[in-house]
Design brief:
The longest helix is centred in the middle third of the chain and has 11 residues. Helix content is 11%, strand content 35%.
Length: 214
Amino acid sequence: MYPAKYSDKFGDVISAIHNDGEILRINLRGIEFTGKWLDDFEAEQTIPAEQLKAFPSQQRGLSDCTLEWEMPLDAVSAEQTLTGVLFAQLRLGKLRQDGGLDHVGLLLKLNLEEQLISSRGLSGFFEGELLDIQKSLPISLSLKCCFGCAYSDYSPYGQALFGTMACFRNNKAKYLSVENKYDLLEILDTAFPVQETYVCSEFQVRKTGTGYRG
């Protein structure tokens, strides 16, 4: 559970994001919204349209709002693990006529034992923002999560804002021999999706130049 604050033109709501490793849930003004990628939260079809008037778009999907939350994220070196908290601010734009959002903005800040490291907020993806933070860490430190793991990558076909990393922990040797996207495509069906901020007992620090994403 991640403490969260939702804000739109009607005001602020203090809530929490519940994460089971695949589905994200948040309760706002008595309505539960679910999603997989953070920018795809939607209310159930059974929710009456009258209740959705409490939100800017009056539609089932969240838009024209800001969502802020915090979640654990540590950094590790050969000698130690530093406890950290990741602060995230997600800005969801207005709905376009085709149902998409006209803008998605993401900013991440890592509080690592009193040192605050911020991303640039330019990419709109966890990949780009976590990469900013990783580059700002001392060379001896790595983010202890799937994003920083030796056995994870992104599909050459693209990814969502969050939660669509490919984990190859069940095919480690083959993955570590990957040098380009064609090598990765050959073994892509042996991977399973994971969230960037998840970490398991098989975590290993990623070395520069590993896999398709380097």
